[in-house]
Amino acid sequence: MQDVPAAVCRRGLSFSDFLDPRRPAVIDDEHCVRLNHEAWFFEDTESRDRFLAEPLRWCGLLTDPVTKRRFRPCESSVSVEHAGVRYWFEMACDAEVFKADPEMYRLFRWVMEPEAGSAPGTR
Protein backbone atom coordinates (compact mmCIF):
# COMPACT_ATOMS: atom_id res chain seq x y z
CA MET A 1 0.00 0.00 0.00
CA GLN A 2 1.27 3.41 -0.85
CA ASP A 3 2.34 5.60 2.04
CA VAL A 4 -0.77 7.72 2.60
CA PRO A 5 0.86 10.75 4.32
CA ALA A 6 3.54 10.95 1.60
CA ALA A 7 0.91 10.78 -1.15
CA VAL A 8 -1.16 13.51 0.56
CA CYS A 9 1.94 15.73 0.86
CA ARG A 10 2.93 15.17 -2.78
CA ARG A 11 -0.49 16.39 -3.83
CA GLY A 12 -0.18 19.45 -1.60
CA LEU A 13 -3.33 18.58 0.35
CA SER A 14 -4.07 19.70 3.87
CA PHE A 15 -6.75 18.59 6.31
CA SER A 16 -8.25 19.64 9.60
CA ASP A 17 -7.99 17.48 12.68
CA PHE A 18 -10.76 14.92 12.27
CA LEU A 19 -12.13 15.46 15.79
CA ASP A 20 -11.62 19.23 15.92
CA PRO A 21 -11.93 20.89 12.50
CA ARG A 22 -10.73 24.23 13.92
CA ARG A 23 -7.20 22.79 14.18
CA PRO A 24 -4.97 21.81 11.25
CA ALA A 25 -3.96 18.16 11.05
CA VAL A 26 -0.33 17.10 10.88
CA ILE A 27 0.29 15.03 7.75
CA ASP A 28 2.69 12.29 8.83
CA ASP A 29 2.59 8.66 9.99
CA GLU A 30 2.35 9.55 13.69
CA HIS A 31 -0.81 11.61 13.17
CA CYS A 32 -2.49 9.27 10.66
CA VAL A 33 -4.87 6.41 11.45
CA ARG A 34 -5.73 3.86 8.79
CA LEU A 35 -8.71 1.53 9.03
CA ASN A 36 -9.44 -0.64 6.01
CA HIS A 37 -8.66 1.59 3.00
CA GLU A 38 -9.52 4.89 4.70
CA ALA A 39 -7.24 7.34 6.51
CA TRP A 40 -7.79 10.05 9.12
CA PHE A 41 -5.37 12.77 10.21
CA PHE A 42 -5.07 14.53 13.56
CA GLU A 43 -3.43 17.65 14.98
CA ASP A 44 -1.90 15.83 17.94
CA THR A 45 -1.47 12.36 19.37
CA GLU A 46 -4.19 13.02 21.97
CA SER A 47 -6.80 13.41 19.22
CA ARG A 48 -5.44 10.34 17.44
CA ASP A 49 -5.57 8.29 20.64
CA ARG A 50 -9.13 9.47 21.38
CA PHE A 51 -10.17 8.25 17.91
CA LEU A 52 -8.35 4.93 18.39
CA ALA A 53 -10.02 4.36 21.78
CA GLU A 54 -13.43 4.21 20.03
CA PRO A 55 -12.84 3.84 16.28
CA LEU A 56 -16.35 2.55 15.58
CA ARG A 57 -17.82 5.66 17.15
CA TRP A 58 -15.92 7.91 14.74
CA CYS A 59 -15.11 6.06 11.53
CA GLY A 60 -18.48 6.07 9.76
CA LEU A 61 -18.60 3.97 6.59
CA LEU A 62 -15.69 1.71 5.70
CA THR A 63 -14.99 -0.34 2.59
CA ASP A 64 -14.92 -4.09 3.17
CA PRO A 65 -11.53 -5.09 1.70
CA VAL A 66 -12.88 -8.32 0.22
CA THR A 67 -16.23 -7.31 -1.27
CA LYS A 68 -15.42 -3.58 -1.75
CA ARG A 69 -18.89 -2.76 -0.36
CA ARG A 70 -19.30 0.25 1.93
CA PHE A 71 -20.77 -0.57 5.36
CA ARG A 72 -20.89 0.84 8.88
CA PRO A 73 -19.05 -1.49 11.27
CA CYS A 74 -20.56 -2.14 14.69
CA GLU A 75 -19.41 -3.82 17.90
CA SER A 76 -20.29 -7.25 16.48
CA SER A 77 -18.33 -6.69 13.24
CA VAL A 78 -15.29 -8.92 12.83
CA SER A 79 -11.92 -7.20 12.52
CA VAL A 80 -8.40 -8.38 11.74
CA GLU A 81 -5.11 -6.54 12.12
CA HIS A 82 -2.61 -6.94 9.31
CA ALA A 83 0.60 -4.99 8.63
CA GLY A 84 -0.31 -2.40 11.27
CA VAL A 85 -3.79 -1.68 9.88
CA ARG A 86 -7.08 -2.78 11.45
CA TYR A 87 -9.50 -4.16 8.84
CA TRP A 88 -13.24 -4.45 9.62
CA PHE A 89 -15.55 -6.73 7.65
CA GLU A 90 -19.21 -6.60 6.73
CA MET A 91 -19.54 -10.37 7.28
CA ALA A 92 -17.42 -12.90 9.17
CA CYS A 93 -16.91 -14.97 6.01
CA ASP A 94 -15.17 -11.93 4.41
CA ALA A 95 -12.68 -11.90 7.29
CA GLU A 96 -11.91 -15.57 6.69
CA VAL A 97 -11.27 -14.91 2.98
CA PHE A 98 -9.01 -11.98 3.93
CA LYS A 99 -7.03 -14.03 6.47
CA ALA A 100 -6.31 -16.69 3.84
CA ASP A 101 -4.42 -14.15 1.68
CA PRO A 102 -4.34 -10.67 3.25
CA GLU A 103 -1.82 -9.26 0.78
CA MET A 104 -4.32 -9.76 -2.02
CA TYR A 105 -6.75 -7.37 -0.34
CA ARG A 106 -4.40 -4.62 0.88
CA LEU A 107 -4.69 -2.66 -2.41
CA PHE A 108 -0.93 -2.94 -2.75
CA ARG A 109 -1.16 -2.48 -6.52
CA TRP A 110 -3.44 0.53 -6.29
CA VAL A 111 -1.69 3.86 -6.04
CA MET A 112 -2.92 7.39 -5.57
CA GLU A 113 -0.65 8.65 -8.34
CA PRO A 114 0.67 6.83 -11.42
CA GLU A 115 4.09 5.29 -10.92
CA ALA A 116 6.87 6.42 -13.21
CA GLY A 117 6.42 4.83 -16.64
CA SER A 118 2.86 3.64 -16.07
CA ALA A 119 -0.13 4.76 -18.03
CA PRO A 120 -2.80 6.79 -16.20
CA GLY A 121 -5.67 4.69 -14.91
CA THR A 122 -3.68 1.45 -14.62
CA ARG A 123 -2.95 -0.43 -11.44
Secondary structure topology:
Elements: H1 4-10, E1 32-35, E2 38-41, H2 45-53, H3 55-58, E3 62-63, E4 70-71, E5 79-82, E6 85-88, H4 92-100
Antiparallel strand pairs: 1-2, 3-4, 5-6
**Strand percentage:** 15-25%
Structural class comes to alpha+beta
Task: Flag low-confidence runs.
Answer: 118-123
Question: Which sheet architecture does the biggest sheet show?
Answer: 2 strands, antiparallel
Domain count: the total is: 2
The overall pLDDT, averaged over residues, is: 88
SSE order in H/E notation? HEEHHEEEEH
What is the molecular shape?
A: globular
How many helices? The count is 4
Total beta strand runs: 6
The helical percent reads 10-25%
Task: Give the distance, in angstroms, between the N- and C-terminal Cα atoms.
Answer: 12 Å
The order of strands across the largest sheet is 1-2
Rg computed from alpha carbons, rounded to a whole number of angstroms: 15 Å
Characterise this structure.
The chain has 123 residues and is an alpha+beta fold. It has two domains: 1-54, no CATH class; 60-106, no CATH class. Helix content is 24%, strand content 16%. It is built from four helices and six strands. The chain has helices spanning 4-10, 45-53, 55-58, 92-100, and strands at 32-35, 38-41, 62-63, 70-71, 79-82, 85-88. Strands 1-2 form a two-stranded antiparallel sheet. Strands 3-4 form a two-stranded antiparallel ribbon. Strand 5 and strand 6 (85-88) form a beta hairpin. The model is unreliable at 118-123 (pLDDT under 50).
